[in-house]
Write a structure and sequence with these properties.
Structural class: alpha/beta
Distance between the termini: 34 Å
Largest sheet: 6 strands, parallel
Helix content: 40-55%
Number of strands: 18
Length: 545
């Protein structure tokens, strides 16, 4: 499963990607760090503990043991079909029939329900992990996991991982935690390493730790399971820590001068991941070039400074990475692919034609440039993800989106004519939104249903550091109702609307109005379950299935 498993050569640092995130592709952040550290002459290795944990837990024998002697018929059936479902999702046949694909995902999710934890309050799916008894935003709960006073369903896998970590004899183990579903398992694993391998130092980094930076500093919080924390890009910070020694550095490290783009995926055989064809994640940029959307954490507290690859070197670099790993399906993970790089791909469409790629873009006017959409399609673009957020221009202007609905309409129709699928994101319940705004969103979606291939509709979470909270009256927020919050590390602020239209009303509108629309419901229903945008572009050629 993992090339590093058979390599027992000592290393300076072992990078770990803990569960649980969608196991559809290897972790880009880990690959980028590994490439950078090796380039600095540092002995480094990596393990994707996320895919390993999933494949361990999905082993039929383990599933049967976890289910007990008398599992329900549905669970027993799911366990029986687990291996065949895994095989289908990891073969081209998985993308040939949406019905068979959906059944396989259903079987695997149901099979994973066999692991409820000792108290039955844990839930693991192919898309996330939740523990009803513990909060990833509570320092007390995190310390309980680190001390071994609480545990997760991943503990048996972690116990088997410890001897492999010890075999590499690392000076440091660095855990990359980018999503909330990784937090609880990461703290449990970090605590196990500290207790069972006392000579190994543990560092924590990634988007979650960086998002916590202001809260940790304000409260003076330190985590017992981590000897060092890295905020922002980890390339320079980890390099310095490993070459200069821990005594030279404070507990929290922050260095943004070095941004790497090229990954080293030697630790992660692409065929292991749950994807109909191997997908190679790459990024053309780090951070967000817009940074003006008031609802987005990248505007209030960006996890990375913005940087992008050279436009002239971009296409040759893409082709080199594809050839190196034998993968022709590329996921560009940028917050938003810069317009000049879209143009670079369009200009080299013939060279890129063997590839298939998808990624996020903004509704930029460049997409209306004569012939650009057709050239992007010719370059292998199969799907673009676009954040519309609202069908009300008033809401878009208030949020700082910088887009005009007239442009959005033209772009959607242009991409449809070019044969590029669209994955559109909608966000209800934003501060200041009214029912009339929500109705405008409904009308816009229905009017453009034929040009929207996939749709994600969510209720807004307001970042704690959002500019909106500095001027609550300007955004329809009742500042007298702002709570202090009971989770010190929570990333979002609860708020009450001054207009009477808030998250609750938006949620009811979603279920009773939006999802009651046949046109909108049809778009939502063809979105791949749980894997959503990670697998949508495999089905972009036949959205009617």
């Amino acid at each position: 499963m993992n090339p590093d498993r058979s390599d027992s050569a000592p290393v300076d640092v072992l990078l770990l990607h803990p569960p649980a995130v969608k196991p559809a592709e290897p972790p880009l952040g880990l690959g980028v760090l590994l490439h950078h550290l090796k380039g600095q002459g540092i002995a480094a290795a990596a393990i994707d503990a996320n895919i390993e944990a999933y494949l361990t837990l999905l082993d039929p024998a383990r599933l049967q043991e976890a289910a007990g002697r008398a599992p329900g018929k549905a669970l027993q059936r799911a366990i029986k079909h687990a291996q065949a479902s895994l095989d289908l999702l990891r073969s081209p046949a998985g993308a040939r029939s949406f019905a068979r694909y959906g059944t396989a995902v259903h079987h695997l999710n149901l099979a994973l329900s066999a692991y409820g934890g000792q108290s039955g309050n844990e839930r693991l799916t192919l898309g996330d992990y939740r523990h009803e008894g513990l909060s990833e935003y509570s320092p007390r709960d995190l310390e309980a996991l680190a001390a071994g006073e609480a545990s997760t369903l991943f503990a048996p896998y972690f116990q088997g991982l410890l001897p492999r970590i010890a075999a590499r004899n690392p000076r440091w183990v660095a855990l990359s935690v980018n999503y909330r579903h990784q937090v609880l398992p990461a703290f449990e694993l970090a605590g196990m390493i500290k207790r069972h391998l006392p000579g190994v130092r543990v560092a924590g980094g990634g988007g979650m730790f960086t998002s916590w930076k202001p809260f940790l500093r304000e409260a003076g919080l330190r985590f017992s399971a981590f000897d060092r924390l890295v905020f922002g890009p980890g390339e320079a910070s980890l390099s310095a820590l490993l070459t200069e020694g821990a005594s030279e550095h404070p507990y929290a490290l922050e260095e943004a001068s070095t941004i790497e783009f090229t990954p080293d995926y030697g630790f992660a055989p692409l065929a292991d991941y749950l994807s109909p064809r191997p997908v190679l994640p790459l990024a053309a940029s780090r951070g967000c070039y817009w940074q003006k959307c008031l609802f987005c954490p990248e505007a209030s507290s960006p996890t990375h400074p913005y940087a992008a690859v050279n436009a002239e070197a971009f296409v040759p670099w893409l082709l080199a990475q594809s050839a190196r790993y034998g993968a022709d399906h590329i996921h560009l993970t940028d917050n938003a692919i810069p317009p000049r790089l879209l143009q670079a791909m369009a200009d080299r469409a013939t060279d890129l034609a063997p590839l298939r790629w998808h990624g996020f873009v903004r509704f930029e006017k460049i997409l209306l440039r004569e012939g650009l959409a057709d050239a992007l399609a010719a370059s292998g673009c199969r799907m673009l993800q676009l954040g519309l957020e609202s069908g009300s221009q008033t809401v878009l202007d208030r949020l700082g989106k910088g887009t005009r609905l007239s442009d959005v309409s033209a772009i959607l129709n242009t991409l449809k004519r070019a044969g590029i699928a669209t994955y559109v994101y909608i966000m209800l319940g934003t501060p200041g939104e009214t029912r009339e705004d929500a109705e405008a969103t409904l009308r816009f979606l229905e009017a453009h249903a034929e040009a929207i291939t996939f749709l994600n509709i969510a209720i807004m979470n307001l970042p704690r550091r959002s500019e909106m909270l500095e001027r609550p009256a300007d955004f329809g927020i009742d500042d007298s109702c702002l709570p202090d919050g009971d989770e010190p590390l929570g990333l979002y602020e609860r708020f009450s609307p001054s207009s009477g239209w808030g998250r609750g009303e938006a949620r009811r509108f979603l279920s009773q109005r939006l999802m009651a629309s046949p046109a909108i419901r049809a778009i939502v229903n063809r979105t791949p379950p749980l894997f959503t945008s990670s697998h949508a572009f495999f089905f972009s050629s036949f959205p009617s299935t």
